[in-house]
Design brief:
The complex is a heterodimer of chains A (251) and B (357). Chain A is an alpha/beta fold. Chain A contains nine helices and nine strands. Chain B is 40% helix and 20% strand. The chains are: A alpha/beta (251), B alpha/beta (357).
Amino acid sequence: MPPASDTEILYAKPESLRRTRTHFCAGCGHGIVHRIICELIDEFGIREKTVCVAPVGCAVLAYNYFDFDTCEAPHGRTPAVATGIKRVLPEHFVFSYQGDGDLAAIGMGEIIHAANRGENICVFFVNNAVYGMTQGQMAPTSLVGQKTATSPKGRDPENEGYPIRVCELLATLQAPAYIERVAVSSPRNVRRAKKAIRKAFQTQLEGRGFSLIEILSPCPTYWRVDPVTAMKELEARMPPIFPLGVFRDGR
Amino acid sequence: MGAKILMTGNEAASEGAIQAGCMAYYGYPITPQNEITAYMSLHMRERGRVFLQAESELAAVNMVLGTSAAGFRAMTSSSSPGISLKQEGISYLAALELPAVIINMQRGGPGLGNIAPAQSDYWQATRGGGHGDYRCIVLAPHTVSETFTTLMLAFDLADKYRMVVLVLGDGRLGQMMEPVELHNAAPAVKVDKPWALNGCKGRPSNKLHSLLLKEDDLEELNTRLQKNYKKVEANEVRFEEVDTEDAEVVMVAYGTCARLCKEVVRHARDEGIKAGLIRPITLWPFPAEPIRQAAARGAKFLFVEMSAGQMIEDVRLSLEGAAEVRFYGRTGGNVPRWDAILQKTREMMPYSPLRRT
């Protein structure tokens, strides 16, 4: 039934998000991040001038959900592909969407140099401290003691080093315009995440340069807990290692 | 027609790319192709185009991928070890059916090798190079002037077939100077790119991806690629023949070795040896037909390469034992001497007075 004319729509699918079945696991944070991005693309009215570069990893299928132009990149090369697009389409809105393996392991070179050039792109970096797509291996952001398929007794700093703090690392560079870490662990934090992602959008649209939003996100499947527990663990265990907040606001 | 100017092969390649309408060039330093990055850094930005020194060959080839996905002509260049690093990106470009031009000014290998000229990346270039069933069009110029026009052709073929075109030169060709006539020709092929990612205004959104989890979907992509390659094989074989009509010994060589063999044909003929040359210009698709025809006329073949013998395998495949095939090559960055090739030619002629076997 069509809504009566005096009905106000409070919650609906963003136009930029396709109506399709999700492949993400129950309780995964990617769906929340996808939705926030699509809501903002609608809000800014830029669907027809947006190009997304999807990573290798769980979010590789982003193009099945995003109803705007989307490109695949080899594992970790996402910021390089985004650079190649943005340099010839400077008026378009270009963002890369990456996970922790893609960005902080195999793609560490590409992200540092894209940030250091101050590429006028946005990077949405979903950190769930584990490789999901390949069945739960240790990520560069896995916590000390975290049990994964490749650290069965827990991440041991003697053998595997410590979790990498991407925001802090990139904030040592001069060029980046905006860097913030958020979490999608509660309604309050989701609203904060949206605010940060909106700021990244504005940074690019105003031509102010590189922005990266790190989004701490749950992976119940490979944390081997139920979705509700995963949210609780995310809120309790990740911010002490990965503090939420703004690391760069303006050069 | 433009004036003749003296330039290196690397500079001629750069200027050819610029005149072909290359909108973005992404490079990374490696000898012996550094003149390309230097030339492009000077001349691309002054034309309002994109020049970027990438952080690695991996990044450079993926920047090419991004620019090509956006619908613009893009190029990167390197030399052997750097080209190995680009193979991941080349495989993705092939899978995404994206046009791109990549120059390899080959140097001695394997490993870090040295910075002297070589032709030992033939297999890598003509067999695909990266993972998966795919091909690149491979063009092999042999003079500085031809390097200029080859780049213009490379961009046209890349757009026409939505393929990676590799220009396979070597350190000597890249760094030697010769006069070049620069003509401002417009790109011959202007193709629509409805697949380009440039914003979905007035059309459904485009997606470029090679992850095809359903077996039948991936097979469909592979079938489409192979069909395209058949078209290239049917239409784009290019080669040059020198004195092959009556030749008893036909040399087969490309690039720098072809230059030497042209000299050797002259010297051999002076001695009364009926020598000729087939110079493949496209290494893939390989010009098997002129070789078959020369074999049918009873010719023997001498392959000259700056490698341990790579192109020779393509001829063995196309002849299937129908003619005598010999090889002369140097490795390690050594360029064959013309008189050594001539001696090899003499050895193939039973009547040659200078034959020493």
